[in-house]
Amino acid sequence: MTEATIIDGNRFSAGLRDRIASEVHALRETRHITPGLAVVLVGEDPASQVYVRTKHKRTVEVGMESFVHTLPVDTPEDELLTLIAGLNKDPAVHGILVQLPLPRQIDAQKVIEAIDPAKDVDGFHPVNVGRLASGGEALIPCTPFGSLLLLRDHLGDLSGLDAVVVGRSNIVGKPMAQLLIRESCTVTVAHSRTRDLPDVVRRADIVIAAVGKPGMIRGDWLKPGCTVIDVGINRVANPDGTSRLVGDVAFDEAVKVAGAITPVPGGVGPMTIACLLRNTLVACARQHRIALDKSL
Ligand SMILES: Nc1nc(=O)c2c([nH]1)NC[C@@H]1CN(c3ccc(C(=O)N[C@@H](CCC(=O)O)C(=O)O)cc3)C=[N+]21
Ligand SMILES: [Mg+2]
C-alpha cells in the first residue's frame, strides 16, 4: 500500500514568509512604513518563552519591528490592561498578541476585548469572531487560517467535501469550522461528548484534529485517502527521559491510510507563525488604507 503524502508546513510557511518579506520591503521603500508586532508574555512558562522567542525571530526576519513585553507572573490585571491601552494608541504597533494562557488572576476574555480589533492579529476579539462568522473584513485566527492554506494548496477547491473538525475551542475548532463553511465544505464539529467519534471521523474527506490529546485519533478511524490536518502539539516523555512533540493523530497508523497528512512538528505549527506575520501585514495595510497583493 502507498503511504500518505506528507504535507510540508516548514516549506510552505517559508514561501509565505518570503512573500511577506517582499511586501514589507516594498512598504518600507515606497511608503516609509514598517509593520510592527507587539507580543506580551505574562510569566515565565518555558514553552511560552520558546514560542515568543520564535515569533520575535521570524518577525525581525521578514523586516518587521518586534516589540516584546515580558511581565512578571503576578502582574495585576489592570496593569496588563494599561499596557494594552498604550499599545492600542501606539502608531508603531500594528498588531498585538497577548500570549495565552494567562495567569489565573487575569481574565483572558477581558484582555482580549481590550485589544483594538484592528490590531487583534490573533483574531480572538468578538468583533473579528463576528466578522468571520458573518462575512466581514476580519483578522482570522492564525492556526485555522494556516491549516486552510495547507488544505487549499494540497486539494485545490474544497467545495462539497465532508470536513470533520474534532475540537470546539475558540482558538482553533470554531474558527476552523467557519473557514471550512466559507469554502463550501459540509462541516461537522465533533468534541469530547460526541457519540461514536470513530464513525463520525470515518465520513470525512478532511479531518482537522484539534483536541490536545496525544495520538487520540487512530488510523482505523480514517477514510482511506482522506486529508488529515493535525493541529495538536503535545510534548510527551520518551523512555530515556528526553521528550518529543507529537500530534493528536497516531501518525504511524494514519500515514498508512490517509492520502495526505501534516506531521508534528513541521506541519501546522510553522504555518501559525507565518499567518501571524501575514495578519500583522494585513492589519498594518488596513490601518494605513493601503491595498495589498492578493497572492498573500
Ligand atoms: N495569543 C496566542 N496566540 C497564539 O498563536 C498562541 C498562544 N497564544 N499560545 C500558545 C500557542 C501555541 N502556538 C504555536 C505556534 C507555533 C508553533 C510552532 O512553530 N511549532 C513548531 C515546533 C516547535 C517546537 O519544536 O517546540 C512545529 O510544529 O513544527 C507551535 C505552537 C501559538 N500559540
Ligand atoms: Mg475541545
From TrEMBL:
The record lists the catalysed reaction(s) as: (6R)-5,10-methenyltetrahydrofolate + H2O = (6R)-10-formyltetrahydrofolate + H(+); (6R)-5,10-methylene-5,6,7,8-tetrahydrofolate + NADP(+) = (6R)-5,10-methenyltetrahydrofolate + NADPH
Give the record's pathway: One-carbon metabolism; tetrahydrofolate interconversion
List positions binding NADP(+): G167, R168, S169, I233
Q: What is its EC number?
A: 1.5.1.5, 3.5.4.9
Which is a GO BP term held by this UniProt record?
A: L-histidine biosynthetic process
Q: Does the keyword rRNA-binding apply?
A: no
List the PROSITE patterns. Answer: THF_DHG_CYH_1, THF_DHG_CYH_2
Arranged from A to Z, the UniProt key words for this protein are: Amino-acid biosynthesis, Histidine biosynthesis, Hydrolase, Methionine biosynthesis, Multifunctional enzyme, NADP, One-carbon metabolism, Oxidoreductase, Purine biosynthesis
Residue stretches making up the Tetrahydrofolate dehydrogenase/cyclohydrolase NAD(P)-binding domain: 141-287
> A Gene Ontology MF term for this entry?
methenyltetrahydrofolate cyclohydrolase activity
Complex and partners: Homodimer.
What protein family does this chain belong to? Answer: Belongs to the tetrahydrofolate dehydrogenase/cyclohydrolase family.
| UniProt xrefs under PANTHER family | C-1-TETRAHYDROFOLATE SYNTHASE, CYTOPLASMIC, C-1-TETRAHYDROFOLATE SYNTHASE, CYTOPLASMIC-RELATED
Function (record text)? Catalyzes the oxidation of 5,10-methylenetetrahydrofolate to 5,10-methenyltetrahydrofolate and then the hydrolysis of 5,10-methenyltetrahydrofolate to 10-formyltetrahydrofolate.
For this entry, the protein name equals Bifunctional protein FolD
The gene coding this protein = folD
